[in-house]
Amino acid sequence: MSTKSNTENLPVTVDGATGKPDPTPRVNMSSLVDVRREMARVYRAMRCGEIDTQDGARMAYVLTSICKVLELERAQAPAMPNKKEVVNIEDARAKLTGRLSLA
To answer: Is residue 7 part of a domain?
Structure first.
């Protein structure tokens, strides 16, 4: 079994002035809109030949999986209120019934 890192053969962008590798830009994927933009970027890169179609299809598959997770997260959010919201609802009920002083 090899002890070499899996990152040795990954492509890197090299700065032409310094010759040092540029860090890979971080892509925001916190919303469905962000993932849609990244899918569009991958599609355009495949159309231009910047990304091999097989690699692009793999990227699109992963992006689709991220979309599914974001959709599930969105669907579960109303069913799982956080504790602060629960406390606020209880305080509102107490105010309405007059058990809590309005200080």
So the answer is: no
Entry pTM: 0.56
Closest to 11 (Cα-Cα) out of 2, 1, 22: 22
Higher pLDDT, 77 or 101: 77
Please report, to the nearest 10 degrees, the dihedral formed by the alpha carbons of residues 72, 45, 21, 19 taken in order.
Answer: -170
Cβ neighbour number for residue 42 with a 10 Å cutoff:
20
**CB–CB of 59/35 below 8 Å?**
no
Q: Is the residue at 77 inside a domain? A: yes
Provide the number of structural domains found in the chain. Answer: 1
Are the beta carbons of 29 and 66 closer than 8 angstroms? yes
- List, for residues 41-63, the tens digit of each pLDDT value: 999 999 999 999 999 999 999 99
Q: What is the extent of the structural domain holding 48?
A: 26-97
